[in-house]
Write a structure and sequence with these properties.
The complex is a heterodimer of chains A (523) and B (256).
Chain A: H1 3-9, H2 11-45, H3 50-62, H4 65-72, E1 77-79, E2 82-85, H5 90-114, H6 118-126, H7 131-161, H8 174-183, H9 186-214, H10 225-246, E3 254-260, H11 263-280, E4 283-290, H12 294-300, E5 306-310, H13 311-318, H14 327-341, E6 344-346, E7 356-361, H15 362-368, H16 373-376, E8 384-388, H17 389-393, H18 398-405, E9 411-415, H19 417-425, E10 431-435, H20 440-443, E11 446-449, E12 461-466, H21 467-472, H22 475-481, H23 489-500, H24 506-516
Helix pairs in contact in A: 2-5, 2-7, 2-9, 2-10, 3-5, 4-5, 5-7, 6-7, 7-9, 8-9, 11-22, 11-24, 13-14
Chain B: E1 7-17, E2 23-33, E3 37-42, H1 48-55, E4 63-68, E5 71-72, H2 78-83, E6 85-88, H3 100-104, H4 106-110, H5 115-128, H6 133-136, H7 146-158, E7 164-168, H8 176-193, E8 196-201, H9 204-210, E9 213-218, E10 221-226, H10 228-233, H11 237-247
Parallel strand pairs in B: 3-8, 3-9, 6-7, 7-8
Antiparallel strand pairs in B: 1-2, 1-4, 4-5, 9-10
Helix pairs in contact in B: 5-7
Classes of the chains: A alpha/beta (523), B alpha/beta (256).
Chain lengths: 523, 256
């Protein structure tokens, strides 16, 4: 399917995501202006503050967005009964985007006003202008072009940064980009990237025009007060709309199910959601597609009530314990520690183990007769390996893996997990660490090398649920227990392939699967 | 250029030092009468501009006091004081984002005049400084020649009819012919308006042309205070140096 057909077929969704994106960028840039311009002006009054404030804004720009989200989600800060910080969704995304947009705005306001000709400033003071009058009648009008140039930079950067909002269920065009990366689908990636690029260009053009309009030297700049008034009115309307959408009324009797940001997780999230809906009769809010380990943060913060976690991930990445190879021992430990530490219950395992799968191209496996990871140690020095950031950093990841099997590669490439399959297929790398349930394994004729030294710990998929959710809705426990041992590795790989390879809709696929398993899904 | 003997501005033993201890002005003792034009004459860096800024409180004296209309500047509300004093600096002092008419109307607008009154006043003043309001009112400073800009600067200083006008080398950046023209027009304005003016220049011919009295400064000290003729008669080497400039042949036409 080419991009144009895709956009035509999904124009309602494309439009919705574009509007969400525009809303994220517009509101965050607006807030950044309201904070950044006064702050920049303040710095011109107390220049001693300029180093620490600009330094802070500078540092904010270097903080990776997922790290920033991880820090923001657990916060719980209210202003007049309205939650202004914390949680997953647009609120946190906007706070992060504001922090990223501040630097160019503060800096340009500061340099713009500092750059006003001292002779002109002195003329104003000599004529008896108060500091305020000097600011509003002379300094701001004269530096408006520079200030708007800062806003322009901030807005254009925001359009790009806002794609990351999809990682915390805040919507926007990032949805398509992440989904496309996950499914190895260029059309989807472009469906997100092209509108975002057009939006960045449009923002650049519009602000460029505004900048010229207000820049010094041209006539008729301040005559068009009606235009300014209309723009302010529009901004106010967008602001009010934003506040309304950001703070929906709380509804009772609702359970939120989350998922991480890959296909299997979204399928599993949908399975949990449908089973809770049909067996427990509760309304379920779906907060899927959360990036990194944000699902854990969100569950602990009570932003979501349940999601599916893997035993090995919980033990090593969250509880920071050394890897253990006995599956039952791992399950016992995480169940015990989660209950006391987080008030979170591990229910029955779903029945499959999604461990790391060391993958090579089928042609290489057949040509070199490779079956196990031990076999691969011989050709490895001539190979390039591509691993996700997660695999490189986790305690049961690369370091121990290479040591156990005595592996050395010609080159190591660290990239996003979703890009590794493509890199392998395109001969950019020769060996990757994927997931054993991945639907792409069959599709791309990849071969999984056996973990003959049993290095990788078990990653049994298990639904997690908050204890206080269980005491509020005991029927949820019953619903989740029905899922125990329900899904085999082959079935999971098949489900993943249906979505990644065949582009099936998750909702419908899950209904079909549950019906086959004689469980009612959504009707 | 009538004076009624009332003091408009007095410097009592005024000194001004920078934070680093450098003295820009020491023990200045001058009285300026209502309606006179006092020229502050001296080389670059002699303290002329500092003296001017002490009058409208852009600077405060380190020692002594400056008295304006009977009250020490430090006792004045600085905003009220500055609105009573017109201020003309070199052409760069115009606001580039405002039209000629808006530039002239700045102080009346700060004083809260109504728009119609400001408009009438601005047009009258433009007319007075020799700029046709119909042609120039809507222009921006960038669209004017140097001489035109300086006329706007003078009109702006006069806008709210302040009793005192300070001028800091207002004609310094102009070509000789335009400068001559403006000096002549300025002198006729002086006669008509009868305002107290303090005028900074390093051009001795300009000083002789416009002065009621001349205060000659050297290295932050007052060397001589008197009528233009007193400068010619003085034995002081700095006064002699300036007087010599005046006697040079090419300056002959400079004396009116």
């Amino acid at each position: 399917m080419n991009l144009w057909q895709f956009v035509l077929q999904n124009r309602a969704e494309v439009l919705e995501l574009t509007l969400e994106h525009l809303f994220l960028v517009g509101l965050s840039t607006g807030i950044a202006v309201l904070i950044g311009v006064p702050l920049g002006i303040m710095l011109t009054r107390w220049p001693a503050l300029s180093k620490p404030v600009l330094g802070f804004a500078n540092v904010m720009q270097t903080v990776p967005s997922l790290a920033l989200f991880g820090f923001l989600i657990p916060l719980n800060i209210y202003l007049f009964h309205v939650r202004i910080l914390g949680g997953i969704g647009a609120r946190t995304a906007i706070v992060a985007l504001v922090l990223y947009a501040l630097l160019p705005i503060i800096r340009n306001t500061f340099t713009g006003i500092s750059g006003v000709d001292p002779a002109i400033r002195e003329a104003g003071r000599g004529m008896g202008m108060t500091n305020r009058q000097l600011l509003f009648h002379v300094e701001i009008p004269l530096s408006l072009g520079v200030i708007i140039a800062g806003v322009r930079v901030a807005a254009v950067i925001s359009v790009g940064t806002a794609t990351i909002a999809a990682a915390i269920d805040a919507g926007g065009l990032g949805r398509y980009i992440f989904r496309g990366l996950r499914m190895n689908d260029n059309t989807l990636i472009l469906a997100g990237a092209v509108p975002a690029a057009l939006m960045a260009l449009a923002a650049d053009l519009v602000f460029g025009w505004v900048e010229q309009f207000f820049g010094t030297g041209t006539a008729e700049r301040f005559k068009n007060r009606r235009v300014i008034l209309a723009a302010l009115l529009l901004a106010a309307v967008v602001g009010v709309w934003g506040v309304i959408t950001l703070y929906p009324a709380k509804t009772g009797g609702r359970v939120a199910v989350g998922s991480k940001d890959f296909t299997e997780q979204i399928i599993l999230g949908e399975i949990l959601a449908q089973v809770i809906e049909s067996e427990a009769g509760l309304r379920v809010e779906r907060r899927f597609d959360l990036g990194g380990n944000l699902t854990h943060e969100a569950l602990v913060a009570g932003e979501i009530d349940a999601y599916v976690e893997y035993t090995g991930t919980a033990l090593t990445a969250i509880l920071k314990r050394p890897p253990v190879s006995d599956p039952r021992e791992v399950y016992r430990r995480v169940k015990e520690e989660y209950a006391t530490k987080f008030g979170i219950e591990w229910t029955e395992p779903l029945g499959f183990n999604n461990t790391f799968a060391i993958l090579i191209r089928g042609e290489d496996a057949r040509r070199l007769k490779l079956n196990t990871i031990t076999d691969a140690a011989r050709p490895a020095p001539k190979w390039r390996a591509g691993f996700g950031q997660d695999f490189m950093s986790r305690p049961d990841g690369y370091a121990g893996f290479a040591r156990t099997y005595g592996l050395r590669f010609m080159e190591l490439r660290e990239m996003d997990l979703s890009l590794t399959y493509r890199a392998l297929v395109d001969h950019q790398v020769d060996l990757i660490a994927g997931n054993s349930t991945d639907g792409l394994i069959a599709r791309h004729d990849l071969v999984q090398l056996a973990d003959d030294r049993r290095y990788f710990p078990p990653y049994d998929a298990v639904p997690l649920v908050r204890q206080d959710t269980l005491s509020r809705h005991p029927e949820v426990r019953h619903a989740l227990n029905m899922l125990g041992g329900l899904i085999s590795v082959e079935e999971m790989r098949q489900l993943n392939y249906q979505v990644d390879g065949e582009h099936r809709g998750v909702k419908e696929l899950v209904q079909e699967f549950l019906r086959k398993k004689r469980l009612k899904g959504d009707e | 250029m009538s004076t009624n003997g009332q003091k408009a501005i007095e410097f009592h033993n005024v000194s001004f030092r920078l934070f680093n201890g450098k003295t820009l002005l020491s023990n200045l003792e001058v009285e300026i009468y209502q309606g006179e034009t006092l020229i502050l004459l001296g080389r670059s860096g002699c303290g002329k501009t500092t003296t001017l800024k002490l009058i409208n409180r852009l600077l405060d004296p380190t020692d002594g006091e400056v008295v304006v209309e009977g009250t020490a500047t430090t006792q004045w509300d600085q905003i009220r004081l500055r609105r009573r004093i017109g201020y003309v600096i070199q052409e760069i002092g115009l606001f580039p984002h405002l039209t000629v008419e808006e530039n002239v109307g700045v102080v009346p607008r700060l004083e809260g005049w109504d728009a119609e009154k400001i408009k009438i006043r601005a047009r009258r003043l433009l007319d007075m400084v020799g700029l046709d309001p119909d042609r120039f009112a809507a222009r921006y400073p960038a669209e004017l020649s140097g001489g035109q800009r300086q006329r706007v600067g003078v009109a702006r200083a006069l806008a709210a009819d302040p009793p005192i006008i300070l001028l800091d080398e207002p004609f310094g950046a102009l070509d000789p012919i335009t400068r001559r023209e403006l000096q002549q027009e300025f002198r006729s304005l002086q006669k008509r308006l009868g305002k107290t003016m303090v005028f900074v220049t390093h051009d001795v011919r300009e000083a002789f042309f416009l002065a009621s009295r001349i205060a000659l400064l050297k290295d932050g000290k007052l060397v001589l205070l008197g009528q233009p003729d007193d400068l010619l008669k003085s034995d002081d080497p700095e006064a002699r140096a300036f007087a010599d400039c005046l006697r040079e042949p090419e300056s002959a036409e400079g004396r009116a």
